[in-house]
Amino acid sequence: MASQVHRVDQHKSAVQGIEAMTLVSNHHFPRHSHDQFGIGVVAFGAQRSWSAVGSVEAVAGDVIMVNPGEIHDGAPVDGAPRGWRMIYLDPAYFASQVSEEFAGPIEIMCPAVRDPLLARHFAHLFRCLTDAQSDRLAGEERLLGTLMCLLQRHGMARPARANFSPGVAKAIERLNLAPEAQISLAELAALCGVSRFQFLRGFAREMGITPHAYVVQQRVRLARRLLANGQSPAHTAIQAGFADQSHMTRAFVRQLGITPGRYRAAVA
Q: What pLDDT score does 51 carry?
């Protein structure tokens, strides 16, 4: 069995609204989603991911991308470590940067592409974001250049609403409203007017994950916001609906690859 390799650096970003990370790992990330737009470049190794367009592979030099709320996973090819760098952009900040050129909701079309030009734009932007001495004007130019390249080559208009069935939409609304609150499968099924078996099958078919996996994901998102606001990991675990701090830490690492304490130290 291959030994576990997992190193994550959450960088201090020079821009509020953008997070920057460097990862080296053979960790298998389960199906999850992010609040932000994500864009990165694979430095070495290879990764296989499940996405809305099916299974995709990314190798060294490829650009990897994800939309807010888009379910995906990530596994190393042949179990070998892969390395990549990522930046995550808050959707509101993303929209504010491109609103002069792109009106309305937008979506990234491709989970993984071979695009040397975009990869070069990303490399310059990543250096600016993680260099405390970077010039502000240069950083703004790198950011706009990267976003323009991304959207012109791999962007499209996004539908205003996701096409979920009424029952699943009700369940999602309930889980998003109060992810920290405990709820049973029977309560969710009753909310949707179907049996537990029907609800479970329907939710997993439409969302790609189970209701429990979805609510844990929403709790991790809530925990991220609380930690970024300076809350302690212990208090965050209670506020986000986890049984205890160790439970939160396991879920946090499984989805994001970094401990709550290290995340808080980088972004709070």
A: 81
Number of Cβ atoms within 10 Å of the Cβ of 84: 22
Helices vs strands, H then E, count in the chain: 10, 12
Q: Are strands 63-66 and 37-44 parallel, antiparallel or unpaired?
A: antiparallel
182-199: per-residue pLDDT in tens? 999 999 999 888 998 899
- What domains, with CATH codes, occur in the chain? 6-157 (2.60.120.280), 166-267 (1.10.10.60)
CB count within 10 Å of CB 19 equals: 24
Helix axes 211-228, 196-207, angle to 10 degrees: 60
**How do residues 88-133 score in pLDDT, each as one tens digit?**
999 999 988 888 877 777 889 889 999 999 999 999 999 999 987 8
How does 204-219 read in b/e, with b if 16+ C-beta sit within 10 Å?
eebbbbebebbbbbbb
Other CB atoms within a 10 A radius of the CB of residue 73 amount to 17
> Left, alpha or beta for 79 (phi > 0: left; psi -120 to 50: alpha)?
left
R_g over Cα of the chain: 19
- The owner of tokens 């299974």 is 55
Q: In what order do the strands lie in the sheet with 72-76?
A: 29-32, 72-76, 46-51, 54-59
Q: Which residues contact 23 (CB under 8 A, 6 or more apart)?
A: 7, 8, 9, 83, 84, 85, 86, 257
pTM for this structure? 0.78
137: number of Cβ within 10 Å: 8
Strand order in the sheet with 82-89: 6-11, 18-25, 82-89, 37-44, 63-66, 112-113
Q: Which pLDDT band holds residue 149 (cuts at 50, 70, 90)?
A: very high
